[in-house]
Amino acid sequence: MNHEPYKLIPDDFTAVPSIERDEAVLRFVDGFDQLDAIGVLVPSEGEVPASVGLHRETLESAGFDGKPGTTLQLANASGTLVVAVGGGKPGSMDADSWRKAAAALVRATQRHARIGFELTDTANMDAERLGQVLAEGVLLARYSYETLKSRAKPTALTEVQFLAPGLDSDTAGSDRAAAERGLATGRVKFRATTIARDLCNAPPSHLTAAGLGQVSQDLGKRFGFTVEEFDKQQLIELRCGGLLGVNAGSAQEPRMIKLSYRPEGSPSGHLGLVGKGIMYDSGGVSLKPSDPMHLLMKMDMGGAAAVLAVFTALRDLGCNAAVTGFLMCTDNMPSGSAYKLGDVLTTRSGLTIEVKNTDAEGRLVMCDALTLAVEDEVDGIVDIATLTGAALMSLGQLTAPVFGNDQGLVDLVLESGGRADEQVWQLPLERAYRPQLDSDVADISNLGGPYAGSTTAALFLAEFVGETPWAHIDIAGTMQSDKDDAWRSKGATGFGARLLIDLALGYSAG
Ligand code: BES
Ligand code: MN
Ligand code: ZN
Fold this sequence. Notes:
Layout: E1 25-29, E2 37-42, H1 56-61, E3 71-74, E4 81-86, H2 95-107, E5 114-118, H3 127-141, E6 159-163, H4 165-168, H5 174-201, H6 209-223, E7 226-230, H7 232-237, H8 241-247, E8 255-261, E9 270-281, H9 302-314, E10 322-332, E11 344-346, E12 352-354, H10 362-375, E13 380-385, H11 389-395, E14 399-404, H12 407-420, E15 423-426, E16 444-445, H13 453-462, E17 470-474, E18 480-481, E19 491-492, H14 497-505
Parallel strand pairs: 1-6, 2-4, 2-5, 5-6, 9-10, 9-13, 12-16, 13-17, 14-15
Antiparallel strand pairs: 3-4, 7-8, 8-10, 11-12, 14-17, 18-19
Helix pairs in contact: 2-3, 3-5, 5-9, 6-9, 8-10, 9-14, 10-13, 12-14
């Protein structure tokens, strides 16, 4: 009799994200050529661009009012679909609205491979930035996770042509060149986001901690960063009791994956990035109930995915800072060997932690990495984690709370979030709540009181960074979208990848 267990993971499976799949040509043109669909930006008042071929009354009677984010598809005899794309009040288009308009156009042309976009109202925009956000908008909106579907693949985007009469006027050539550079930058940021999304969308048994180590090695070779993997034995030697405690119940080995990027010249500063990599969060012996939210717990490695994604962009975008990343990876499972309520873990820092809830595991894996980043003498640490359900409850799926011990670094996170349209909002690190983490038997416990759960989790992390400037982004709410919405596609959003790339590119010490 053959007792070979059924394998969840096919032998030929590779979790490496399918980064080749979107090879769409993006370019600025002087005239459209051979397109399946053309989008035209139409403001909510004033003249309708001639290429739409209809009067405003006709558009209005069809229900199109030109509001940002709206589109109207206009089939016509030539066979090329024309799409009116809402531009809002004349003169109102900024970077966010261009990214959203580009995304709206792509969502209105899902079955079209070759798309044009006629841009009016570009006067307020820096040409390079315009190119960047247009590339992000069109490419991110066409993303969907198809790796495991055997049929019905969506139409790939093969070419997008941008017609921007406003760009070339007096500084002919240079605006155009800047806009093309922007397209290239946007594509790199899209590629990074796709990697983060693919890793988050991958089923939990397909992507283990060791598997993410392998993926990291492959990406490191390709995109110019080094990867060191620490297995269970090495983590024991490093005394990473937090990560090891959470891993105790798992049939899979843990991994700490350390990523290093070094610029060619002397670095402008040294940034540490820490990502929570819980490959699946069952809650452990504090088992989660089986409600639909918990099939999202395969995305509990969204922080680690975002950090890894950042590294795939640093060389290509010429980052001048040194960046060191720590991905803290294991699943959180109940079993005979699992850590228990009342257990006490000894962390690398020497601090002991009483486990009062095994489902508050994120802070336990993160703390050892924060200690290691401080030991590496980084100038600042940003950590990113799907840490608390309370973040989803308080700020929803569009905005991530950020906490920190250094207003300068928190401000950098807020500014980068604004530029990336990955919204973050600062919440206070209210030290008065710190006694909620007191323990009778250990230095600290992993569970706060019933209120302000995101804050008590942040206060726990703050214990491990000492005086090093530190900011913490809780992406439990923003890791995932319930629906296609502008540049966010249903499923994993890759939230944080573009924000942290922007932050790393502008980072300097002091
Ligand atoms: N991974 C979860 C947080 C989470 C919740 C992420 C919903 C995404 C969506 C985290 O490990 C967790 O279980 N947190 C607990 C902490 C509590 C036990 C103190 C929570 O938020 O309920
Ligand atoms: Mn948990
Ligand atoms: Zn978790």
